UniProtKB/TrEMBL annotation:
Organism: Apiospora kogelbergensis
SUPFAM superfamilies: F-box domain
Designated name of the protein: F-box domain-containing protein
F-box domain boundaries: 10-57
Entry-linked InterPro entries: F-box-like_dom_sf, F-box_dom
Annotated stretches, region: Disordered: 447-512
Acidic residues bias (residue ranges): 483-512
């Protein structure tokens, strides 16, 4: 109904009981609700400060939030304005709205659905109207590059380094991480060239040993000891792993596609749903699971990437790499190895948060085992190798979920990782971070890692990939997949020096 042109409704609204008018107005489109108070004084009185009306209109078009104390009017108005901003054709005007877009997107995801139906049998999160709206808005390349590709990493790749506030870089990087699908080229063009690839610049950040210090906990945190997430580091990890999965063809499998190819896929608190196969079988539950707010117990699929140590050493410690800490190292395209690991863990103990932790939730300790899926595909490797895993999950002071894992070989801790869970507590999206030597060896190595939950079950037959409880059969071998694949082998021109010569001179002068 068009309230601005229906004179009959305007005349009758003066005599109509308020509850009847309310019942009519709750079906208007959110964008039209702003015009209703302008129609007449009676409708103005009905809409003004009517939190219940805004709630009903909100719930008619968006998800029912799991949390209480929602400002219905402000949330509704912000989502309407977000759509207007994303439809703007003026790119400069659009870009100026980054802070508003960041705040509105993060708020919409916090209010996303946690108990709806799943899209299909292979997804581990419910369908969300909020996430669907955001996915539609950011399907436009103009919105992607106006809001998701504004970090220093993208400015560097486009050679448009500006003295933008670090806060803008962080907001854009966080939006990109929540979007969840790596934008693998610096800008959209009719012909995506090698020079436009983001992965060499992301590798430059991820494999730069200077990024990891005691102040960053050797993880994706700010270099100030605050434990605040450095979203530009997380973004670089997202790009590196996403590019490697795509090169190997693994992103075509549902078990990866749902997490790396679907925008805003389960990237909100409480979004994880067990697979239907878990519901059909009796899953043995640890009594501590009932006290675990993070949903630790289960089977997780992990991806680990790394450089050959010779390349890693050359990149970090050669004479030409003796740069000031503020100057990024050159972009590299050495090629990396990628490993898939099946990790089965269960809660070990739970304790109160420490003084440096977020105080809203406890610290959960876990233990379990992990096993390389690559080894089980290769008959010439040791397929009996199982690694013990331990670790903790806790909140940071700003409320992000921090995972720490240890890999134990022959009773000795060998590797450690520090990671952040995208979307918050019990999100289906997964965890991104980096691994390193457990003794914080200043000469490395280090690399990116990601893991996400694929089943509630925490036990199986020796951790084989054939064990994976996944619809439509096991996670079987992709004939195009080679864990030692070197992406540089497929390049027909140039080398990593192509990035170095022009970019470093220009960037070095700018940074200095």
């Amino acid at each position: 109904m068009n309230l601005r042109s229906d004179g009959l409704f305007i005349r009758r609204s003066r005599q109509t009981p308020p509850e009847v008018i309310h019942n009519v107005l709750q079906y208007v489109d959110p964008s039209d609700l702003a015009f209703v108070p302008r129609v007449c004084q009676s409708l103005n009185n009905t809409v003004r400060d009517n939190a219940m009306l805004f709630k009903h209109v909100y719930l008619a078009h968006f998800d029912k939030p799991a949390r209480a104390n929602v400002n219905w009017e402000q949330n509704l108005k912000d989502l309407v304005r977000l759509q207007v901003v994303c439809q703007q054709s003026d790119m400069e005007a659009k870009r100026s709205e980054l802070a508003f877009v960041h705040d509105t997107v993060t708020e919409a995801l916090k209010n996303a659905c946690v108990d709806g139906e799943r899209l299909n049998l292979s997804t581990t999160h419910p369908v969300s109207r909020n996430a669907t709206l955001l996915s539609d808005l950011f399907s436009a390349h103009e919105n992607q590059y106006a809001f998701l590709a504004r970090s220093f990493l993208y400015e560097r790749a486009r050679r448009h380094i500006r003295l933008a506030p670090q806060k803008e870089h962080q907001m854009s990087a966080k939006l990109h991480c929540l979007y969840g699908v790596p934008l693998l080229y610096a800008q959209r063009s009719a012909h995506e060239t090698r020079q436009g690839k983001m992965s060499p610049f992301a590798c430059s950040k991820v494999y730069d040993i200077r990024q990891y210090t005691p102040r960053t906990r050797w993880g994706p945190f700010m270099d100030d000891g605050s434990d605040r997430v450095d979203w530009e580091k997380v973004e670089a990890i997202l790009l590196v792993i996403g590019a490697n999965l795509k090169d190997l063809g693994l992103n075509s499998f549902p078990i990866c596609k749902n997490f790396w190819e679907t925008p805003f896929s389960g990237v909100w608190p409480g979004s994880y749903l067990p697979l239907p196969l878990d519901d059909e079988e009796t899953v043995e539950q640890n009594p501590l699971d009932l006290q675990d707010p993070y949903g630790v117990t289960g089977t997780w699929l992990r991806v680990v990437c790394f450089l050959d140590y010779t390349d890693f050493y050359d990149f970090n410690f050669s004479v030409e790499q003796e740069l000031p800490a503020s100057v990024p190292r050159r972009a590299i395209d050495y090629g990396e190895a990628t490993r898939l690991i099946l990790m089965r863990i269960t809660v070990d103990r739970i304790e109160p948060p420490g003084p440096e932790d977020g105080q809203d939730l406890p610290v959960v300790h876990f233990k379990g085992v992990s096993r390389s899926l690559d080894d089980s595909w290769d008959e010439n490797t040791n397929s009996d190798l199982t690694v013990a895993e331990t670790g903790t999950v806790r909140l940071t002071p700003e409320g992000e979920v921090r995972w720490t894992t240890f890999s134990i070989f022959n009773g000795q801790e060998r590797w450690r990782s520090e990671s952040v869970q995208l979307g918050g507590v019990k999100s289906a999206k997964g965890v991104l971070g980096n691994w390193f030597d457990k003794d914080f060896d200043p000469r490395g190595p280090t690399g990116p890692t990601a893991f996400w939950k694929i089943s509630e079950k925490s036990s199986g037959q020796n951790g084989s990939h054939r064990d994976l409880p996944y619809p439509d059969g096991a996670f079987t071998h992709n004939p195009n997949y080679d864990p030692d694949y070197d992406s540089a082998d497929d390049l027909d021109v140039g080398s990593e020096d192509d990035y170095d010569e022009d970019v470093e001179g220009e960037e070095g002068a700018e940074m200095k």
